Amino acid sequence: VSYADDLVERYRTTGDRGALARLVSLVERDAESFRLGRNIGETTNEEAGFVLGVTGSPGAGKSTLVDRLVANFRAAGDTVAVVAVDPSSPFSGGAILGDRVRMQRHTQDPGVYIRSLASHGHLGGLSVAVPEVVRLLGSLNFDWILVETVGVGQVEVEIAGEADGTLVVVNPGWGDSIQANKAGLMEVADIFVINKADRDGVRNTKRDLENMLELGGDSGCSIPIVETVSTEPRGIEELVTEIQAVRERLSRSGELDERRGDRRAREFSRVLDGIWRESLGEVGAVKEMRNAVKCGTRAPIEAAHSVMADVVVALQKRLEKE
Amino acid sequence: VSYADDLVERYRTTGDRGALARLVSLVERDAESFRLGRNIGETTNEEAGFVLGVTGSPGAGKSTLVDRLVANFRAAGDTVAVVAVDPSSPFSGGAILGDRVRMQRHTQDPGVYIRSLASHGHLGGLSVAVPEVVRLLGSLNFDWILVETVGVGQVEVEIAGEADGTLVVVNPGWGDSIQANKAGLMEVADIFVINKADRDGVRNTKRDLENMLELGGDSGCSIPIVETVSTEPRGIEELVTEIQAVRERLSRSGELDERRGDRRAREFSRVLDGIWRESLGEVGAVKEMRNAVKCGTRAPIEAAHSVMADVVVALQKRLEKE
C-alpha cells in the first residue's frame, strides 16, 4: 500500500486531520504522480461533493461571504472544504492567508477543512494541483467544496471551469460588472451576488447585470441575482436557497454529470500537454535549435522537425522510468 | 529539384505570377511540409521585406487605406504584397474577397501581389500558413508585405505578433478605441490611424488614445497618431512618412531583428506543438481513453500516462516516414 493510500485510509476511518493535510500537500507537490492519480482518481460522478467556485474582484468581500456560507452549510449538518486559490507563486506563498483570519473560527470544526493553494503551476498557467486537490476533497465525501479565487482574470475563468457551479461576486458600482463581463465571467456565472448591497448603486448594478445577461444570453434559464451584505449578515439564507436550487437543477438535468465529464477530459488533455512541454524542456537540442532559429541560421519548420528524434527519445526514457 | 524549388526559381527569374500563386497555395495547403520549410525558410533578417500589419474593427476602412498605401508605395517604385487574412474557415472562403474589389486596379500591376488567406488552421487557432506565407513573400523580395486582418480579437493580436510593425485603425467615436484597448491592440500598435477623420469626435478619440497610451505606456518612444480620410484621400502621405520612420527606427535600433527572431522562435514552438497535437489526434487510444475519462471509468492522470506508449509509437512512425 502506498503512502497516499495509507493517508486516504487513515483519514476515512479516523478523520485524522493531519493525514488529510499531508494528503493535500502530496497532491499539491506532485499532482501528476501516476500512482497517486490512480489511487484517488476513481471517484464517480455520483459520489462527489458539489464544487462551488466563488470569484470576483479583490475586495468584493468573497472571504466574508465564504465564511458565512460555511457557517450556513454547517448549521444544516453538511461538511465543507474551502480551497482558497492564491495568485502568488508556489514559493512566495502565505500573503493571502492573512486575509482569511476570520475563517479561523471554523478551524476547530472537524466538519470544515480550509486550504490555500497557489494558482500557478511551475510551468505557468493554471496549476494542475487545483483541479486535482478539488477532486481529492470531493472524493473524501465533503458535501461542499468551495473554491475561492482572488481577482478577475483568465485563471479565474479557468478555475470556474473546474467548478460544478460558480458564484460571481460584484459590488454596487458600474466598473465591477463591466470587468466581470470583460473577463468572461458572465458566461460562467450560475448565480450573481451583489455583495455590500447596503451601498449606493445596487439598482444600477442589477440593471447592468441584467442587460449584459440578456445581451449574452443564449441560455433559456435565467441567472439569479442575489443581494447580500455579508458583514451583517443579510441575504445569506436567500443565497443558500439559490445555491441549493442550482445544484438540484444541474443534477436533475444531467448537466452536472456533463460538466464533470468535460472537466475530467480537459484535465486528461492538460496532463498530456504537460508531459509534452516537460519533455521539450528536458531536451538540450530544442533549446539550441530555438536559438539557431532566433538568430536566423535555421528555418523554423525544418528546425522543429530536426529535433523530433531527440524529443521522442526523451519521451521514451520517461516512459521507461514509470 | 522539388516542385516548390522549381516554382521559386521560375518566379525569381521570370516574375511568373502563376508560379507565385501556386507557390502560395502550396504553402497554404501544407505549410508544415518539411521539404518546403527547408527550401523557403532560409531568408535572413536583412533580405526580407517589411511586414506591416493593418488591424482594427470591421468597417474602419482598412481595405481602402491599404489600397491607398499600395498606390503610394508603388509610386515610390517599391513592390508590395497584400495578404488579407479572413476570419472565415478555410472551406467557406471568398466572402471577404468581395470587399476587396477596389483593390482590383492593382491586379494588372506586376509589382503588386494580392492574396486572401483563412485565419484559422485545421486545428483551430492561428493558421500556421499565415506566418509562413508572409515569410515566403518576404523572401521573394517584395519591399512591403501588408497583412490586413478583419476584426478585433485574439487572432488579430496574434497576427500583429507576426508583423514587423502594426497599424491599428480606429474611427472617431468612443467605442472603437476602447475596444482596441480591450483586445490588447494598444500594446502592439506602432502607429494609430484615426481613419474617417472627417467625422465628428476626432479630438475626443485622439485624447482617448493618448490617455490609454499613457496609462499602458512603459515604452519611452511615443506612438504616432495619424488622422486620415482614406476615401478622399487625405493624410496618406503623412501616414507613409510615419511608416517609413517606424521602419527605420526599428531597423536601426536592432528591434526589427529581435522581433523577427522572436517570431521565428514562436513559429518553431508552434510547429512542434502542431506535431504533438496531430499525433494525439491519430492515436485511437487517446480518443477512447478521453471518453473513458469523461464517463468516469478512468482517472484523468492515470489515463493520460496510459496512452503515452501509443503516442510515442505514433511519433516514431511519423519520424520514420519523413
Helix/sheet category of chain A? alpha/beta
Discrete helix count of chain A: 13
Which word captures the global form of chain A?
Answer: globular
| Biggest contact | A-B, 54 and 54 residues
Helix content of chain A: 40-55%
What is the subunit organization of this protein? homodimer
**Proportion in β-strands of chain A:** 5-15%
The counted number of beta strands of chain A is 7
Distance between the termini of chain A: 17 Å
Q: Give, in order, the helices and strands of chain A.
A: HHHEHEEHEHEHHEHEHHHH
- How is the main sheet of chain A built? 7 strands, parallel
Rg of chain A, Cα atoms, Å: 22 Å
Mean pLDDT of chain A: 81
- Name the strands of the widest sheet of chain A in spatial order: 3-2-4-1-5-6-7
As residue ranges, the low-confidence spans of chain A are 41-45, 89-99
How would you sum up this structure, described in words?
Two copies of one chain form a homodimer. By secondary structure, chain A is an alpha/beta fold. Chain A is built from 13 helices and seven strands. The first copy, chain A, has helices spanning 3-14, 17-29, 34-40, 62-75, 129-139, 154-161, 174-182, 185-188, 202-216, 236-253, 255-282, 284-295, 300-321, and strands spanning 50-56, 80-86, 112-118, 144-149, 165-170, 191-194, 225-227. The longest helix of chain A is centred in the C-terminal third of the chain and has 28 residues, at 255-282. The relative contact order of chain A is 0.11. Residues 41-45 and 89-99 of chain A have low confidence and may be disordered. Chains A and B meet through helix 3, helix 11, helix 12 and helix 13 of A and helix 3, helix 11, helix 12 and helix 13 of B.
